[in-house]
Design goal:
By secondary structure, this protein is mainly alpha-helical. About 60% of the residues lie in helices and about 5% in strands. The chain has 19 helices and eight strands. The strands form four sheets. Strands 1-4 form a two-stranded antiparallel sheet. A two-stranded antiparallel ribbon has the order 2-3. Strand 5 (about 425-430) and strand 6 (about 435-440) form a beta hairpin. Helix 1 packs antiparallel against helix 9, helix 4 (about 100-130) runs antiparallel to helix 9 (about 290-310) and helix 16 (about 475-505) runs antiparallel to helix 17. The two termini are about 20 Å apart.
């Protein structure tokens, strides 16, 4: 029978009786944690292996995605995946246990990732057989996947409402976005539950062990990112090429695959092979992306196997219902009681007709709508429960003000990568052909961000912050967040300056081939991008880390999982906003993104520096808004703490 909760009644079931496979043996708890850490490292390796060269992959022949379309797809992949963390956390709380949620969605994750090596093999097969779209007989893998499907799998210039070459139809939109949806649906719930599941394993050993677990968890995330950006990105871009032969001469009798060009085709070299050959050659990708995209499939398969194999070691908690439901009940009841109170006030013409409760409400200087759900004010929820819900509304504006920051942050995997692809990446010549020169993977620049984090975090935590504290210069979390936003703004400002400098040194153009795609690049070295990546890393040290700390420490213990999910979802919304913005500034009338008939979304004919200046302006406005929101939060916190001195606040039943 349902029973009205009292001041001490929990709205959630007792979690003490909801565990399975609980073992007091410390070695089992530690083994379980090791498995979780390895699974997290493999999952991050898979994700960064997909995202690191995603723009380059979609540019390749014969997919022919424009730069703007490829960047948009990157934003959608990242944004949708992080938004799904919020829903995945609710799913793990309400429907399945965290163990079952992770195992189920790891399988869906694998399904989504498996599309990419299939597409990479289809690209390679299409190119080496020399079959063009016009000559296709429908027998090839790529033709079956991407060329014989309905309109949503093949997009031409008319459907994009931009001016592009008539023969540069883009392929595989339907297949790629199907893979993106499956990947996001798989990644979100895994990321939302894996950290809390690992903490559940070590919680019984004390707080020190829990803190150690989270430190190692963060390191495993960065190890996965380092391997993905460092090793897998190199394989994807440079592949496996033999360097002791010249490229073939294009002849009228030979069938030459289409080349996705960003500029006029390069003139054939003097020495070349005149007969048709299946050797790797200019304009033909090799197996680099196929091997590179097999890595995430294998890593996720291994992660799923070892995760399930450790079932007997885990402390598995059954689903108890999500706090989201209880939060919703508090909000609904507060709104209902508030409306009823206002209706009674309108009906009563005499102040003496007010009830005792309403008289007490009038005496409360800082009463808000949610207080109407408290038992002391005629509601049915304990005071502590309502105060926990009110904490969400105090914290949420801070997270909302950070959305433009995430918009800037995710430029690393998108527009910064495009800028790098149009800069000189060749270092030394290792063979007789341009294909055999050593080329710095454009995705390697993201390693600057990873390394800066690994170096700066311990320095700030162990040296800088203690030094400031000893001298009375404490740097609060909210101030650190604003400082990071300044560094993010400086990063895109520097990117704008470098883009203008790059274009100045683009005449004459430096033509370079990257895995079969010819880029009309600048003679400016890609290493000029290092400072803007470093500034993004510094901003992450302040804003991202302080944001996580703020979400964890300021959230009530009963709602920490929910608020962390909201924090991750806001980063996803920032990425999705980036996809919307890049489409808005790519309209032909504006001309920022370089849509011309002579190229395929090449930034050399656009004004990408305007886009970066726009991002800097948005970040500056967001910083001003954030400072106002943070000041309001501090003011409310001071009022709340003052009130708590004189008013008894019951312990929240959520946390029991």
């Amino acid at each position: 029978m349902n029973r009205r909760p009292s001041e001490t009644t929990s709205l959630l079931l007792n979690r003490a009786n909801s565990t399975q496979n609980i073992s007091p043996r410390p070695w089992k708890r530690k083994c379980a944690c090791v498995i979780v850490l390895v699974v997290e490292m493999l999952e991050r390796l898979a994700f960064y292996s997909i995202i690191c060269n995603f723009v380059l992959f979609l540019n390749l022949n014969p997919m022919h995605w424009s730069t703007v379309d490829a960047v948009t797809a990157t934003f959608i992949l990242v944004g949708f995946a992080y938004v799904m963390t919020f829903l995945g956390g609710i799913f793990g709380d309400m429907v399945l246990s965290r163990f079952s949620t992770i195992a189920l969605f790891l399988f869906m994750y694998i399904l989504g990732v498996s599309f990419f090596p299939v597409l990479a093999w289809a690209q390679y097969n299409w190119n080496v057989t020399g079959i063009s779209a016009d000559d296709c007989d429908g027998s090839g893998i790529f033709q079956k996947l991407c060329m014989s499907d309905p309109w949503w799998n093949n997009v031409n210039s008319s459907s994009l409402s931009v001016e592009m070459p008539a023969d540069d139809t883009s392929h595989c939109y339907g297949v790629v976005y199907t893979a993106i949806v499956l990947l996001a649906f798989g990644m979100g719930p895994v990321k939302a539950n894996i950290a809390q599941f690992g903490a559940d394993q070590i919680k019984s050993l004390g707080r020190d062990k829990t803190r150690t677990f989270f430190n190692w968890f963060y390191w495993m995330v960065n190890i996965g990112a380092f391997i993905g950006y460092g090793g897998v990105a190199f394989i994807q871009q440079n592949g496996f090429k033999r360097c002791n032969y010249p490229p073939p001469c294009p002849t009228s009798s030979s069938i030459t695959p289409l080349v996705n060009v960003s500029a006029p085709l390069v003139t054939p070299p003097t020495e070349c092979i005149t007969s048709l050959t299946l050797e790797p050659r200019v304009g033909v990708p090799d197996l680099g992306f196929f091997i590179g995209y097999l890595v995430p499939v294998v890593s996720l398969l291994f992660a799923l196997i070892i995760f399930i194999a450790g079932h007997s070691l885990y402390n598995i908690k059954a689903p108890q219902g999500s706090v989201v439901i209880n939060v919703s009940k508090v909000i609904v009841e507060a709104l209902r009681n508030w409306r009823q109170r206002n209706a009674r006030r309108r009906r009563e013409s005499q102040p003496t007709g007010q009830s005792e409760v309403e008289n007490s409400l009038d005496l409360s200087e800082h009463l808000d709508v949610l207080d109407m759900a408290k038992i002391r004010f005629g509601g049915s929820f304990p005071c502590g429960t309502v105060e926990d819900v009110k904490a969400i509304f105090r914290i949420a504006p801070i997270f909302l003000a950070l959305i433009p920051y995430w918009l800037v942050y995710f430029q690393m995997q998108s527009t910064y990568l495009v800028q790098g692809l149009h800069m000189k990446i060749n270092l030394t010549t290792m063979g007789t052909t341009p294909e055999c020169e050593f080329k710095v993977p454009a995705a390697w620049l993201s390693l600057v961000n990873v390394v800066s984090l690994l170096i700066l975090l311990p320095i700030m935590d162990r040296i800088v912050y203690p030094w400031l504290d000893k001298r009375g210069f404490n740097l609060p979390m909210l101030d650190r967040i604003s400082l990071g936003m300044v560094f993010a703004m400086l990063s895109v400002l520097l990117a704008a300056v470098i883009e203008a400098f790059r274009k100045e040194h683009n005449n004459p153009a430096f033509l370079q081939t990257i895995d079969g795609t010819i880029y009309n690049a600048s003679s400016v070295s890609i290493f000029f991008q290092v400072p803007q990546y470093f500034l993004i890393g510094v901003s992450e040290v302040f804003t991202s880390v302080a944001g996580l700390e703020f979400a964890y420490t300021k959230a009530p213990r009963s709602l920490q999982g929910l608020i962390m999910g909201v924090f991750l979802a806001m980063s996803g919304l920032g990425a999705l906003l980036g996809g919307v913005l890049i489409r808005l500034v790519s309209i032909p009338e504006l001309g920022w993104m370089g849509y011309r008939k002579v190229d395929f979304g090449n930034p050399n004919h656009g004004h990408w520096e305007y886009y970066f200046f726009l991002l800097a302006g948005l970040q500056f406005v967001a910083l001003l808004v954030y400072l106002a929101v943070a000041a309001r939060y501090k003011r409310k916190e001071l009022i709340r703490q003052t009130c708590e001195i004189n008013v008894h606040i019951d312990t929240s039943p959520f946390s029991r």
